[in-house]
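Sequence of Delta(3)-Delta(2)-enoyl-CoA isomerase (Dendrobium nobile).
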Amino acid sequence: MCSLERRGRVFILTLTGDGEHCLSPDTISSIRNALSRAKSESAASGGLGFALVTAAEGRFFSNGFDLAWARSGGSDSVARERLQSMGYLFRPLVADLLSLPMPTIAAVTGHAAAAGFMLAICHDYVEMRADRGFIYMSEIDVGIPFAPYTMALLRSKIPDPKVFREIVLEGKKIGATEAVAKGIIDRAHGSAKEAVEAAVRRAEELAARNWIGEIYCSIRKGSLPEICSALGFPPETDEDRVKLLSLSKSKSKL
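Predicted 3D structure, token representation.
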């Protein structure tokens, strides 16, 4: 499903194998367990100065929800139920990434479609290979409506209304170079290897800033109010801010 490796202050989560990395319930659970482990290990090491990179083996980053699994249930009603269940399971994975107390970078090493595209843009930064692969929201073509939290995530990450229209109403397939020009991703690279290397370098640079993870997470959530509201994150209170300030004071004593 996936592996988690720690290189110094950088966690590298890799979707393993040469398949399409479709997001079945088991795959979603595996990713969430890896994120939980990264969160726990960073907290045990002081909670500051970490970063996470997510990458994938093979020619796909992720081809979205596992439609083959959904359709294998034997009837249309079971397929609909399974598809709906994956949407419910994916929602807390989005919440996990947006509440992870460290910078996150996606290394899009191949096609990223539908929920695979959403998985990528849940990260703070996106590095992508330019020699092959595209990002794509396939819902309009497949005939699947968007969940409210999905629309909230896309609006939060793709503020240009014309680009947003291309993605959700036209189902346009966009390569890395064009995605950079449209402000969807951060940088394009010559190969999958170069994309991963660039993501790790960025992660190392960000980890070296020695930021307090919980404060980084608080600022991230504050910068993405629509998706955080759609996910049900409670508003930050004065008491929460006092606790965060105490973490800042603790760091100054180190």
